[in-house]
Amino acid sequence: TKIEDIIVQVGRTGKLTPVAMLKPVSIGGTTVSRATLHNMDEIVRLGVKIGDWVEVERGGDVIPKVNRVVEDKDHLRGHKTFRMPQNCPVCGGQVVRTEGEADHRCVNANCPAKLRETILHFASRGVMNIDGMGDALVNQLTDRGLVRNVADIYKITKDDLLKLERFADKSAQNVLNEIEASKKLPLDRVIYGLGIRFVGERTAQFLAEHFGSMNALMNAGEEDLLEVEEVGPRIAQSIREFFQEPKNRELVEQLRRAGLTLSGKKKERGTKLAGKTFVLTGTLAHYTRDEAKKLIEDAGGRVSGSVSKKTDYVVAGDDAGSKLDKAKQLRVKVINESEMANLVAG
């Protein structure tokens, strides 16, 4: 069949997918009028242009896809080349393609196409911990236009909630109390809640400790970001792209006005163990695993979960397991917890 146009759909993660609009054709008893082209690399691989005749496949219940371009005397080539838009077709936000990746993405955290997922992430237990804000509530809030970005959560009133299904006075008040309590959570939770690509819980903690405020993070250059523990070029680029989008900067301003915690304590890390990597194994007598980890990290060291040639020390407690064997095999220095404490003390 013939490709009459190529449009772009925006998925819940912000991924842009080119879709071929086809002259309707029957495949296995079903009329097919669109087929996925996956991404720009696939369009280049197939050499597809608008107006081309193509072979379309529909396997099982899978979305139909374009297999190849048909070119002969009865099926002349199209002439219109498709280009991925520079701005999101849904919200007008900036579209970026990370180096080494096939997909183009919208970086606007407020994009309606990905709003539901953005809010569910923001409200989830490990992030802003707004109990009661699950699928059912988020669907109603977004469907009715009550919440258009995560900052709108803080504008919800009891009257808004009482108009929704399954809400009485007490359940509405419980959700409002949870929303209010979330304002007191620390800076790292807010950073994590923004949904910046590649920035997970641990990275958000490192960013909060290093910069000490959302403002400093928003205005950080790539070199500043690369100084943060576990932040490499890919994460640094993703953070820069996020804050270069004006709509995201405005979102942060709205969160500031709502009263969220956008500053924290800048952590002054020691340098005694700078550049040293430790692995903990077994049970320590005087420290929990988290306490030992904090001790090492506060002195500038890094704690890894696995032993490799790059490991400087393995701290072995009672009932040390396979990590101790691996350390001996790789001839990594094995120390006990008092030796660890001595290294930290310098």
Feature tags:
346 residues; alpha/beta; DNA polymerase, domain 1; 4 domains; 4-stranded parallel β-sheet; 11 strands
Uncertain segments are none
Kindly report the name of the CATH homologous superfamily of the largest domain: Nucleic acid-binding proteins
How would you name the oligomeric state of the polypeptide chains in this document?
A: single chain
Number of helices: 14
Distance between termini? 74 Å
CATH architecture of the largest domain: Beta Barrel
Describe this structure in words.
- The chain is of the alpha/beta class and 346 residues long.
- It has four domains: 107 residues, OB fold (Dihydrolipoamide Acetyltransferase, E2P) (Beta Barrel), CATH 2.40.50.140; 53 residues, DNA polymerase, domain 1 (Orthogonal Bundle), CATH 1.10.150.20; 72 residues, 5' to 3' exonuclease, C-terminal subdomain (DNA polymerase, domain 1, Orthogonal Bundle); 69 residues, Rossmann fold (3-Layer(aba) Sandwich).
- Helix content is 36%, strand content 17%.
- The strands form three sheets. Strands 1, 2, 3, 6 and 7 form a five-stranded antiparallel beta sheet that branches.
- Helix 12 links the parallel strand 8 and strand 9.
- Helix 6 crosses helix 7.
- The chain is globular, with a radius of gyration of 26 Å.
- The N and C termini lie far apart (74 Å).
- The mean pLDDT is 92.
Write the layout of secondary structure elements.
Blueprint: E1 3-10, E2 15-27, E3 30-36, H1 40-46, E4 53-57, E5 65-70, E6 95-96, E7 104-106, H2 115-123, H3 135-143, H4 158-162, H5 169-182, H6 187-193, H7 201-211, H8 214-218, H9 222-226, H10 233-244, H11 246-258, E8 277-281, H12 289-298, E9 302-304, E10 313-316, H13 322-330, E11 333-335, H14 337-345
Parallel strand pairs: 8-9, 8-10, 10-11
Antiparallel strand pairs: 1-2, 2-3, 2-7, 4-5, 6-7
Helix pairs in contact: 2-3, 6-7
